[in-house]
Fold each of these.
Amino acid sequence: MPTRPTTRTRPATTSNGVGYHWNWGIFWEMSPEGTGTYLDMIVQGLRMTLITAALAWVIAFIVGSAIGVLRTLPGRMAPLAASAWIELFRNMPLLVQLFLWYFVFPEILPAAWGIWLKQLPAAAFLTAVIGIGFFMSARVAVQVASGIEALPQGQRAAATALGLTPAQTYRYVLLPMAYRIVLPPLTSELLNTVKNTSVALTIGLAELTARARAVQEFSFQVFEAFTAATLAYLVINLLATMAARWLEARVRVPGYGRA
Amino acid sequence: MSEPVIQIEHVTKSYGTGGPVLRDVSLTVAGGEVVVVCGPSGSGKSTLIKCVNALEPIQGGRIVVGGQDLGDRRVDLPRLRARVGMVFQHFELFPHMRVLDNLCLAQTKVLGRPRAEAETRAMALLDRVGLHAFAEKHPGQLSGGQQQRVAIARALAMDPMVMLFDEATSALDPEMVSEVLDVMVELARSGMTMMVVTHEMGFARKVAHRVVFMDQGQIAEDAPTQAFFEAPRSERAQQFLSKILTY
Ligand SMILES: Nc1ncnc2c1ncn2[C@@H]1O[C@H](COP(=O)(O)OP(=O)(O)O)[C@@H](O)[C@H]1O
Ligand SMILES: [Mg+2]
């Protein structure tokens, strides 16, 4: 009679085969960096992730809105320029873009500028903010443009007929409704911005994922380190989603979308 | 009749690379005059109305509104448009603004009126169209007929020298058509200069001074109202009238 194969549970081991020692207490131990506990390392990473994501989002939102508006302007030049921006920043992988900004961009500048740029104390941080900001701006632009295009053609005509300038038409008539329409997809682009900050560990940014990896390298507590990081990302996403829901309810237009 | 408010002279218009949509159109609307424009779908009525407000560029001829040539680069188009009221088939109220704010936006941003003055004017006009009680509502909370009356009030708030209507009642449920027509009739009787695209021949008979019949981008007939209904000269106008009046 054939023996029934035993179900193998994956043993909690590290690659060297030694049994894994769970130790949640690790976070209260001092790290060899000498600047605090392991928990402090995670918190520092979390803070860097939040600051980077927030500033990158500000850039993405402002630049993305401007490009999105350009894309919907009458005429040929503005939409063409907007499409070029969108295709350029959306189709190149983020990792490649960060490398280009960080390693290649200083080299193609006049030598003095390049050197000054490379010696900036926060070079990785600035690169991440701008690189992720521009990358996300292309995605925000697509959303904003689709929101504007979703509005009836007559809205622009009505605003123009009342004597509003194109700038006033966008400011008071088109954008307020367009943003409302694309609030849900914009929320997920915000969450993408948070997640994308982790790519910046490749240029040396001490953000959450990088710090979790450092915790693991010093302490060998890989599961604890990445569980902490995962929980932190989860909490950020939950808070951002809740904030978006609250905003959606706050700006809901009475009677709009009624059949 | 007094000074012409709208002078359309030999206007030619096409969209993009398509064929001409307006072909040598000439039409004058004098101050205080009510002109009804009718004609089959696709004959260029909406296009003509849009050109009068410079919402669409023209390729030939010229359009003079309130003494200002729309093709003149020195003309401040937003300022001029502010004095030309326009009412659309689908109302085009701004859905995120309360009715009151719909009426105040251009008054404050374009005319530079103080907010309080703009609100006083807005409330007076809402009163005139019978919607005083709806000032705080959003457009989505109003019926189609109510929305169109608000849209008329919004245009009137700019103290227009002329009002343009493009099928203002054709998107409405039948029971709401008359409440909008009543407002338009009252407006016509108050002496407002009006250019009205409509198929409501009852409205035309009641208040129009002239009826213009358009066909395939041309003005096929331009006659005093009574003459138009009693003895249309062009064959196409006769056919059109028999079609829309017999049912
Ligand atoms: N934005 C546009 N682009 C291209 N063609 C248009 C546009 N608007 C109208 N047309 C065309 O111009 C012609 C006249 O249209 P329109 O002025 O809307 O007529 P009407 O209001 O009398 O029904 C039609 O053949 C229509 O297809
Ligand atoms: Mg039409």
Amino acid sequence: MTHLKGGRWANLWVSAGLFLLAGMSMMAQEQGRGDAQGAGEFAINCANCHGSDGQGAKAPSLTAPNIVALSNAELIRVVHDGVSGGMPSFAQLGDANIVSVVRYLRTLQGQGDMVGPAAATGDVAAGRALYFGKAQCSSCHMIQGKGGFIASDLTAYGRSHAANAIAKAIVTPDNPVAPDARVVEVRTKTGKKLTGVVRNEDNFDMVLQTEDGRFHFLAQSDLIDVHRTDHSLMPQDYGRRLTPAELNNIASFLIVAGQTTPAEPLPPGRRHGGGR
Amino acid sequence: MRIDQIVLGTAVCLLLATTPGDGRGQTAGIKTGMPSPKRHSPTAKADPAGDATGLIEVKQSDLLQKPTKDNWVSYNGDYTGRRYSALTQITPANVSHLVVKWVFHTQEAGPLEMTPVVVAGVMFITAGNDAYALDAETGKQIWHHARAVTEGLIDDASSHHNRGVAILGTRIYMETDNAHLLCLDARSGNLIWDVPYATGNRNYGATSAPLIVKDKVLVGTSGGDDGVRGFLAAFDVQTGKEMWRFWTIPGPGEFGNDSWPGDAYMHGGGTTWMPGTYDPELNTVYWGTGNPSPDYDGSVRPGDDLYTSCLVALDPDTGKLKWYFQFTPHNMYDYDSVQTPVLVNANFHGRPRKLIVTAQRNGFLYILDRTNGKYLYSRKFISNLNWAKGMDEHGRPISAGLTPDEKGVLVCPSQDGATNWYSPSYNEATHMFYFRSLEACNIYTAKTTPFEEGRTYYSTGLRRPLGEIGKGYIDAFSLDKLDFAWRDRLIGPTFAWAGVMSTATGLVAFGDDAQNFVIVDGRTGAPLWHISLGQAIRASPMSYAVRGKQYFAVATGSGDLFSFALP
């Protein structure tokens, strides 16, 4: 685990529009504070709702992709202001502790290796060519308005993920599979077999989207068999198909795309992702 | 136990309780596990997965379809703006059995003014800057594109009203409160592009639904009470590149600029805040323009104030003006002309004609020849009208000379208009034109005030005459008789801004002034069915069908969407 540099966090305070002065002076003290501080604050303040590993308890998981995708500034704002759906404000913790908690949260998310704005060390143009070409990422994932629809939009992904985290996500996908991304196979009473991704489900109905984009509106009572696999549609073999250099190029393309595309304004406490 | 196991278990239990049958359309009721009479819809497909339900691929021919049937592909249903559905399952005889099928609640939204778009059983709606795709049979959310509403807007845009999406191919298009045109993938809700299209004056906003014409998507703005310069702009459906822009306020050197001394044209209003209509055979789009700005102070904009309070006929390929017709020259009463210009092919004085029928906020119903904009007919449709003494033979109103001043002058109809943006409907079966009207007056005051960005530009205000209560009506105008067939008074505490639609079986549906959704017999106005929705209706209804079942849907004032069908 590498320590985050004060300068980056100072910028975040400014971009989050919070505590302009306090943020600056705080950074001085911030140097040298270790993870222990954040871990302790997390255990006292967050674990009872989000679980001690952040994987969710009464409150949602903080390691879900859509939370990972939030920028540091957004996380700081969430913790400081709270969210209307039951997430309290922790303004009283003080700026330094909020930063420590968010920093610790990043390690729980497996993002602890992220230092400063993620560095793009690869060949961005080659990464783009792979994304839209040989690697066929674009057949499933949209980025900057181009590409498929069955998997999540990756435009913002590189904003909150370091190159090695991205490479890891590509070569070891579904680790574990996000519940709403798993491939589901169903068989209807009329003998129809469908394989796709569930977009909505309750005890009565299921909306299954197949890879051709079509939504299948199914009644649970018409389903003879529902098989929920433990994998998503993301190919499992990129580790063999792509060299480390190619992976780094793709990661660099995602990082640069994330950092150069203006973010859509999100309602407080909500976010995009997962094709939802 | 994990959720998936619970669901599987339930599915198995339900199977036991279910008689063989195909698809949701036929086993509705049984699949809930609740005792419920079994009903078969005669038109339901034997293999529901065998039809095109769920596949979003809208072709030009789908957009050109008229009248609308299963799909409702644009704000008004089809290009004519008739808001008329050819569906016939629900009739005067069985409409009393209608039930609520589902309710969808949008998050963080105020009153909804949108009309859903339905394609292949998928419904697309908006609330503020959010877009949703729903299963049109169950109201279950398929995806949600969340986007924060914009802070710091003024006037209408600050209420974040939005009237819905346009659709073509696998994409939907919507306007945001701060006048961006968004293109989203209809299969995922993901953003394809985002084009800010109104810059240079932060009083611009947008509240409408875009209209797709051929390979372009047409959008307008709000802000006509706030000193913006109105325009209609067309963007390439693929790339979002601007193809043309028609300014509703002529610039220096252009015809009509004489009303706009100095840089007044930059603040002249005439906004395009409702969708227009389109005649593919005449290759013409018809678009209504809003009031001039400032609203009540006419002294700073002498003359007719073109092209405010007009209908403009444009070439959709170039944006060039073909003709215009002005309803309220030198308007000082906020009478926008954005009410849907409905395209009707009908006999007029015994001859088949291509007409435009429109009931205007200024209190007159007009019939124009849409091939050339010639005035054919007008009729006052409210009893309280004092701003005009009559109409000359060209359809130009004879002004009564009521000029708002610092003391105030009583003018009828009121600023809210004798009718307004809520939709009218022309019905092919009854040959009647249905619309909502309001009898009310205002005392208008005026005071010259300079334009300032960030502030409204009404140049003073209004009050209600002491003790006056506005009265709402639904009106039916017969094109055969050129006369009103009926007029129903809407009793209730608050005038609702709710439009009208009609169907091939002669049903007319609308929200009344007492939070009811009502369906009446279009021939007589006799009520056939109603239901209280517990909240005011501020939107116009539509109708669609999935797997042989016809639905009515309407959005409401507290952010909900209701869908109704026969049991």
Amino acid sequence: MQVLLGGGLLASAVSFLYPVWRYLVPPVATDLGGDSVVAAKVGELKANSGKIFRFGSRPGLLVRTADGEYRAMSAICTHLNCTVQYRSDVREVWCACHNGFYDLNGRNIAGPPPRPLESYAVHVNGDDVVVSRRRGT
Amino acid sequence: MGSAPEAAPRSSTHRNPLVRWLDERFGWEDLLAPLRHKTVPVHKLSYWYFLGGITLFLFIIQVLTGILLLLYYRASANEAFESVQYIMTQVQFGWLVRSIHSWSANLMIFTAFAHMFSVLFLRAYTKPRELTWLTGMVLLFLALGFGFSGYLLPWNTLAFFATKVGTEIPGQIPVIGKPLLIFLRGGEEVTGATLTRFFGFHVALLPGITTLLIAAHILLIQRLGMSVPPSQEAAWKALPPSKREMPFFPNFFARELMAWYIALGVLGLLAALYPWELGSKADPFVPAPAGIRPEWYFVFMFQTLKLIPAKVGPIDGELLGILGFGVVGLIWVLLPFLGGDRYGRRQVFIRGLGVFALAYMLGMTVYGYLAK
Ligand code: HEM
Ligand code: FES
């Protein structure tokens, strides 16, 4: 009798709580970003400057080095998720949140960031600077 | 089923007819009796007894001004910033209501911390007041939760990054971190979905839990009476006639009201002279601005995280810092159970720990503001 009652109560509790539990987890959003994006127009960036571009729903950083080369990487700091920026004074990538530094290949070189920024391939296609995810990463 | 016997009519001799009417119906006087018997010890440290009450007062202010803000605030990524802007520029005295809500939030967190340290140093947290300490600590965490969730609501740049970092922190915990992060953000990233969730936490979940816990906290205080600091206890024991107390009602209560009045004055002055700023609208495709910093009450943790190197041996420095704060927080909650006897040797150690924690928090906060 006790067991029946207890089991019944438990079963109803589970049947109430399970949907609530599932409800708390948001549906997975699909990132329609694709694997490459036009990050800028040729001539838009001066040498020794950078800009944030949209890579799907996430920010990426496109840098034009002092020698005029393009570099691209994820702009999401590997420390705690802030958005990084290019600092023309030190010619490095900087995260303002906790003073983290990366070099222009995205390698973490100072401060708290534990890992490099994901680096992207860049090629110029006519008038467009196209950034794409590297294969196999 | 028989019908319940008619309750015997009560007779009340109270002079005030309204009180008499209430008393005859549900024994109003019996309800007030505990308050009339309650006394508050009077000594040179009595002033610290006001801090909890002031915190309560500021919470009441938060509820009232929060409800006013709800009349115009809209919780969506496209409208939140604009609706707060509207409150600030179009709604009459909207700037004041928002300024009071923001200032009072900060003052409330300050008084809650001060209250916590005062009961620690006056040794009011030991047996039999373990549960009072426990509910108080949870209330302190809830206040921080209010501050954190409310901070995002205007949807400005600083709040956006503060929320990114702040939700990433629990996200670093092994195993449960990731699901927790998704639950808090309502997805992988901080978006409008996060704003909606935080809004729900801020105006429904947290107020409900907080109200229940405040009731429990106050009930415990009422049941247990006010604690007298050990030094004072000893002095009164040595010289019993020197012992002094005052009735809670009306004597202490009147003083408490004075304290609330002063708090209201300070709050009004700050809110009117230094209206809270709004900043610029959050944009996920803009870098974190230089000089970004969380609200002052998180700065000591923020500065610590900044100083820990990327790797400490094999583990991420970040994780180490987070686990460290977690462990310290847990120890803090459990202090009354770890400290043993109220007059024991371990209390000296705990006092030292308290002094150290306070010095660490103050030092790191100042450092956080001076460091670039
Ligand atoms: C029932 C209680 C409460 C309600 C209904 C409420 C409601 C609101 C609303 C609608 C906003 C958005 C408008 C705005 O940003 O100015 C807000 C903001 C905020 N709330 Fe509350 N609140 C309550 C309690 C609290 C408490 C107890 C705290 C702090 C301990 C708090 C701290 C904040 C903060 C820091 C903000 C951001 C202010 C700003 O920058 O604009 N709130 N609250
Ligand atoms: S989030 Fe970039 S350094 Fe901390």
Amino acid sequence: MDVFQWLYSDTVKDHFTNPRNVYDPDRDKDFRPDAEGMVGNIRCGDQMMFMLKIEDDIITDVRWKTYGCASAIASTSMLSETVVGMNIRDAYHIRPADIANRLGGLPENKIHCSVLGDKALRAAIDVYLEQHGRAGEFKDESAQIICKCLNISDKDIEEAVRQGAHDWYTLQEATKIGTVCGSCKAKAEELLHEFVHIYG
Amino acid sequence: MDTRYVYMDYNATTPLRPEVRDLMVRALDVYGNASSLHALGRTAHAEIEETRANVAALIGAKEASAVYFTSGGSESNNTVFNTMFLIGRKQARRKIITTAIEHPCVLNAAAHLKDEGFPVVFLPVDRDGLIDMGAYRAELGPDVLLVSVMAANNEIGTIENIGEIARLAKAEGAFVHTDATQAVGKVPVSVEEWNVDYLTLSCHKIYGPKGIGALYVRQKAPIEPLIRGGHQENGVRAGTYNNLGIIGFGEAARLAKEELPEYRQRVGGLRAMLRDLILERIPMVRINGHPVHALPNTLNVSFPGAEGESILLSLDLEGIEVSTGSACASGSLEPSHVLMAIGLGPELAHGSIRFSLGRYTTEDEVRYVAEKLPPIIARLRKMSTVPLEELAQEIR
Ligand SMILES: Cc1ncc(COP(=O)(O)O)c(C=O)c1O
Ligand code: FES
């Protein structure tokens, strides 16, 4: 999928030109977040900050800022809309693939940029947990992450296979697994064969 | 929704100008093989030789026979480097000097020679993009086979002092090549005045068709074919002539020469206008490239705090087409090698936009861009994690 073609889908264009919950230094002077998370580095061309207001483990409001490309802006805008009203545990387990799907998929070379928002959100939740003496609470309970770059777990692979993925190609189509550094391929293929054997 | 369309990416490529297009439509029927001796072949041959003369005139070459047709700038550059490879592997004089800001086709051809064991130097440039003459002099010596420096840079427009570079190289007995792909048609180019042995140019940058270009080779300078086969182009470049492309090239070259003074003045004026409007309306920007020795059409600007691809796509949504040195746009993680070479920090390199104007750019278009740009930069800066104040001294 071509970047420009993607950008011109109405949803993406809307989120890029009119991003939701983006921090506005004038309007949001009084926004007092309970936790903040920052990831990325301007040196590499992108950086993201997520700010959360949390009450009884429910995310009540969010703001974010970014030095990033259109994909980062659109994805984070969509993510920010999704997590308001969510339990921090559920928010922690949101997968970038879900956000990408809601934006109608993502061009492959833009995945790196679009996961930034998701990472910043987790960083903010981690900070919050730490502040409340609950450090690492969600880390171990989550399914086992197979693709670190895209945060794709064994559960995701299982689900993709149940939905019809039956080889590496169709699994990648469904999940984008292994499209960043590629180092997860061996492990992912092993699981794929296992699940295809069970469900196939 | 505004449906305006403003093309400001003329350094990437130019539209086919109508005069050239008309001629090419007529030439579609010039199907004769220029190497054939019958009438059809002779007609094609005559048209091709006319182009050769026009191209020679455009680059100030005395002999039209020194011009060889190729498929474009990339092929011309590769032909020179391949020739140096064939010569250099048999002798001690084999050092190659080029620069850090060349087009990828030169950088990669040079890197290939390096892989083959040739000593290859990529000269650094200063903050404005001029090569470091001190470093250059220090690298020169009797072991230097080729000096290859681009006449004008495609990203920032800086014009190198090719005459002086060639003079120093010649004193050491080295061959001199210049990639003049971006200079031709924008500023005066003269192989005689510069005294270079090889010069590259490409037709699609001067309002002609794509896939055709030329290599100038001074008499007695060695040249080896990259493509071997028949005896076309004196055996330097085999393959049946690309009649259509060559005929279009001839007309594009003729018009480029004829219109050069007017082009420089008019386009240079528009560039200055765009630059001044940007400086006036947008705080904290840096104009990249040499303030004086620069192409009349190229304006490269860094907008710290705003990411280049986001700027590019925002402009695109307004119908404005430009390019960026941001890593994101290229799909790599590294920003433009040219902007890094002139010493910009990543914050400035990632936030850079190249506006390249051309013969169809109007004052009205410049105003339109200068009107759409400020709110885009302001919007992106507002949502940015980068504290602008901290970048203030980087702008210098
Ligand atoms: C400086 C320079 N050299 C070489 C080239 C390559 O020319 P061509 O596209 O004709 O192969 C370009 C064009 O992109 C260029 O700007
Ligand atoms: S670990 Fe899966 S793509 Fe890198």
